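thread: overnight batch results

M.L. [08:02]
morning all. the overnight job finished for the chain we discussed friday. pasting input first so we're all looking at the same thing
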Amino acid sequence: MRRFLLLLLGLFIMISCNENKKKDIEKSNVVNRKIIISKDKKSKDLLSAVNSDTLVINYKCAVIYEPTEKSIQRSKKDVNEENFDIGLDDVLFYISESTEYLESKKIKVITTENNKILKFNSNDKNMTIINLDLEKEMFGIYLFDPKQKPKKVNIIDISDEFESYMK
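M.L. [08:03]
and the structure it wrote out:
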C-alpha cells in the first residue's frame, strides 16, 4: 500500500510539473525565435509557425528580416570588413527608425533572422510565399495587410511607404 501511495504521489508531481511547463510555453509567443501558438484566441488568430524555417503571417503587421550569422560572414568576405561595418551601421540605423515609426502607428512588428520562408495568408485565401534566401539585401521590411499582397518597402522612406500601402 505504501509503494502504491508513493507511486501515486510521484505521478502527481510529474504531471503537475509538466502542466507548469505547458502553461509557460502557452503564455509565450516567442521561444527561441520559433513562434508558438498561444491558447488565447487573439494570439491564435495572429501568428503561427509551420516549422522552424517558415513563418506564417495572417494579420496586419510589418516583418523585419535580418541575416543569419552565416550570411553576415559570407557578406564580409565579399567586401572588406570596414566597408561592411559602415554599411551595417547605416542599415541598422534605418531599421531602428523604421521600427519606431511602425510601432508609433500601432503596427505589430515581427523580427526574424532564422526563418527562410515567409508565408503571407490573405483574406481572399491567396497566399504569397517569399524565400528570404533569394533576397538581395541582408535586411529588409515587408508590410502586410491581409486585404492585399505583402509589400517590400524602402527602409529609408518608411513613412511614405507605410502611408501608400496602408491607406
